[in-house]
TrEMBL record:
PANTHER family: PROTEIN TOLB, PROTEIN TOLB HOMOLOG. This is Protein TolB. The keyword Signal applies. The lineage of its organism: Bacteria, Pseudomonadati, Acidobacteriota, Holophagae, Holophagales. Transmembrane segments: none annotated. It comes from Geothrix edaphica. The gene is tolB.
């Protein structure tokens, strides 16, 4: 079955005002304002200073820099009596003080507090405890997420993970998982065959397509942490299935089923009953479904009007309409977590770039540009970034970008990566 790749339009972000009521500070996810956070050197006990610098401080700074809501200031300013004035004069609006201790038993303790340098009042205080097996970087991620939650009202994504496909041998692809910063790679499947198109439910359950039995089948988990089992088809029908995606409530899977004539349609599988229902019916290719956040609509790619374009329909197949209007090849839609945007790819001069379509405006905006190709966009849980694959350094690797396209970060140095999905739930 042809695989449609996508090119996406860039969302124009509206700068919203920073709202402050003494110690209360809240930023919108679309705000361009950044709060300047001063980071005093950590006070360390029972740990090596160099280890803390590389495995905690550097990780925390990177996490905060990539949030899009903090600008981190690191100065060797006094951390003793009344440091707020000196940090304020250096430009910091908040001052973060951290104490890290390794107890005699090996357990870690982290004390973190943030001070409003103007009001000289605490805006954040929290203790953390972890056993000896927890890496320092995990504590840094947890602190970064909590600081983002304190500032914006929504927890950050430093502790989140990305599930993706990686080729490990000729004809063999398996699912892997990495932490948000690219560390801690874990292999999730060992089918010894082609395993493709991962999708992650809100509760962390996996589903995917595997060719382990010869013909493609949809496998996955019926319960969290459950065994991987075949979900569709119930019998060996030999149907060509691809690109499953969980509904927001985790009770249905939208997927693609093809026939011997080369046509394909969007289907929906009810997990409880095992019944699959066809939503599209016609000659041509209908593929790459993506649910809106409340599970009432599906975006998908179709060539029903010539070249591939992004279309929308209700979850029963009604009210079908075309979304993309510019460009001859638009595909791979990914609906944003709050439902206001759809990311996709568009092909121009033989390469693909990322775009975002803002539904409220009816306009599309370009994110990536350049001589390389960018594919398979998926949203971060907080909707501030996209994860995607690109060949800008040769083989396909995984990258993230903010919605301006100016902050592109490489996540992997592994050959043959594809189909990343960003999730909190695993």
């Amino acid at each position: 079955m042809p695989r449609f790749l996508v090119r996406t339009f860039l969302l124009a972000l509206t700068a919203l005002a920073l709202q402050a009521q003494q110690t209360e500070v809240v930023l919108s996810a679309s705000s361009s304002a950044k709060l300047v956070l001063g980071m005093a050197p950590p006070k360390v006990s029972g740990l090596d200073d160099a280890q803390v610098a590389s495995e905690f401080t550097a990780v925390l700074k990177r996490d905060l820099d990539e949030t899009g809501v903090f600008a981190v200031l690191q100065e060797r300013l006094p951390a003793g009596s009344a440091p707020a004035k000196a940090w304020k004069e250096a430009g910091a609006q908040w001052l973060l003080n951290v104490g890290l201790t390794r107890a005699a038993a090996g357990d870690l303790q982290l004390e973190a507090s943030a001070l409003d340098t103007a009001a000289e009042k605490a805006v954040f205080t929290k203790p953390y405890k972890a056993d000896r097996m927890v890496p320092l970087r995990r504590l840094a991620h947890a602190l970064a997420d909590d600081l983002v939650a304190r500032l914006t009202g929504e927890r950050g994504v430093a502790s989140s993970r990305v599930v993706f496909v990686r080729q490990i041998a000729p004809g063999v692809k398996e699912l892997f998982q990495i932490d948000r910063d690219g560390a801690n790679q874990v292999q999730l499947t060992r089918h010894g065959s082609l395993t493709l198109s991962p999708t992650v439910a809100a509760d962390g359950r996996l589903a995917y397509v595997t060719y382990k039995g010869g013909a493609p089948e949809i496998w996955g988990q019926r319960r969290r942490d459950g065994a991987h089992e075949k979900l569709y088809p119930a019998t060996g029908s030999g149907a060509m299935v691809s690109t499953p995606v969980w509904s927001p409530d985790g009770r249905r899977l939208a997927f693609v089923q093809g026939d011997r004539r080369g046509n394909s349609d969007i289907m929906v599988l009810d997990l409880d009953s095992g019944r699959a229902r066809r939503l599209t019916d016609g000659n041509g290719i209908n593929t790459e479904p993506s649910w809106n956040p409340n599970g009432t609509q599906i975006a998908f790619t179709s060539d029903r009007e010539g070249g591939p374009q992004v279309f929308l329909m209700q979850d029963d197949g009604s009210n079908l309409r075309r979304l993309t209007g510019e460009g001859m090849y638009n595909a791979s839609p990914a609906w944003s977590p709050n439902g206001a945007m759809i990311a996709y790819v568009s092909r121009f001069e033989g390469k693909f770039d990322l775009f975002i379509y803002k539904l409220g405006e009816g306009k599309a905006y370009q994110i990536t540009t350049g001589v390389s190709t960018s594919e398979s966009p998926a949203w971060s849980p907080d909707e501030r970034r996209l994860v995607f694959t690109s060949n800008r350094f040769g083989s396909m690797q995984i990258f993230t970008t903010d919605l301006s396209g100016r902050q592109v970060v490489r996540m992997t140095e592994l050959p043959g990566c594809q189909s990343p999905k960003w999730t909190r739930g695993r």
